[in-house]
Amino acid sequence: MDSDYPLEQTPAVRRRNKVREAILAAAERMFASEGESGLSIRRLAEEIDYSPSAIYKYFGSKEELLEELKDSFFERLLDRVDGVSAANKDFHDRARACVTTYVATATARPHHYAAAFSSVPTPEELAVRRHLSWDDFIATPKGQAFKILVDLVEEGQALGVFDPALEPVKAAKSIWASSHGLALLMIHMPILPDVQPCPTQTDGDFVAYHADIVMRGLAVPAEPPHKNGTR
Amino acid sequence: MDSDYPLEQTPAVRRRNKVREAILAAAERMFASEGESGLSIRRLAEEIDYSPSAIYKYFGSKEELLEELKDSFFERLLDRVDGVSAANKDFHDRARACVTTYVATATARPHHYAAAFSSVPTPEELAVRRHLSWDDFIATPKGQAFKILVDLVEEGQALGVFDPALEPVKAAKSIWASSHGLALLMIHMPILPDVQPCPTQTDGDFVAYHADIVMRGLAVPAEPPHKNGTR
DNA sequence: CTATTTTAGTGAACACTGTTCACTTTTCGA
DNA sequence: TCGAAAAGTGAACAGTGTTCACTAAAATAG
């Protein structure tokens, strides 16, 4: 059971990991520049001087390999947002930074981000996921990222800048949707930010602009004395 | 030049169009249920009892065929939103309906909507699109859909419910991003709407909830007498 | 009505793709 | 050192989109 390598790994597995990393690195390169369709097992194998079948000793399928690329990207995304979320700036700045950092990280690797949200689940998968508990969800990277948003909303409510009537989970979902949408719109339709007749506005500035609008949507309602019929 | 069929088409082209429609109909079926990867030229040809090469007498490539499917879906999306936008309801209801209808139509055909925004443009394509004028843009279906939003914002500003300081084009972009994001989030991550610990809320209701938040983000700022440092 | 040209449609082939599997070679532990 | 386990390979299978020389049928011209 025990070996001569109590903490270090045995040279065999170190070599193996090295090959595995080489595969992932090459795959990362190809995927980042050419996307999912540009990443072929055969070209990948050629790139690292192995036979195509060798890849299958390290990854069960192309999909499994891709899953690993996406997951590592999502962890990176989470880290980034977590970083700015932890920085002790002014609340408004921090909230805005969460959105802008999210969008910036997403658009920096468009293929990764798009691929991370590319699969349309089948009805069967949907039935499985339907039985996921809240605790299981926030254990995943996506869940953790989501938790950051929930906490942000609650903090905003505690500070009195966000409407206390909002359910934090739903508000967080709204923020995520808005950020997600802007990131994908910039990735898939980069026409829009440029076609506008106000050329003074760059893409990056619009992200902050959008983030401010999103945050404004969660602010405390405008007129307290007025009779407010809706909701 | 002139034929016996001044308004009607000649039987030859009518027959041809019939085959073309049959191809599109079969493609539509396969694509709607199995997505882009499930739509193969060969299976499609088999379905309509033609040889694979016959397809290429009607469509230059698989991509061209897909493009037509996506375009027709986008026109449908535009029609739907245009419909509710033209209905003379209360402004708030109408604005909310624009978002909810958009999201509902998108999620009703998840593969179509996801595919319509799936291509990551290459740097070359990006350079080409960068020289599109505003007029050219709003001539396209996407541009027209966008125009609806711009008009909506301007109307809201005229009614005094939206912040007059907003640039309508940018505000419209913000609305689109938020709607787009919610639609794709519901398509790709249907976990979220269900994992929330408030089971009284159904998906459809959340769309309206989100729409309200989005609209609130464009409303006139809260405190006029207060000193407002930011922006 | 015939001759010619245009069009519709096909089958075989090309160059790919992911994946499997029997097989050899190398490596490692006892 | 020997046997077992692991690493790696080549060939093959079943797909894919696409092309192209070719036939059969229809439309057109004389």
TrEMBL record, chains A, B:
Gene Ontology terms, MF aspect: DNA-binding transcription factor activity; transcription cis-regulatory region binding
DNA-binding region(s) from the entry: 40-59
Pfam families linked to this entry: TetR_C_33, TetR_N
Domain (HTH tetR-type): residue spans on this chain: 17-77
Gene3D superfamilies: Tetracycline Repressor, domain 2
Keywords linked to the UniProt accession: DNA-binding, Transcription, Transcription regulation
Protein name: TetR family transcriptional regulator
Organism of derivation: Hyphomonas jannaschiana VP2
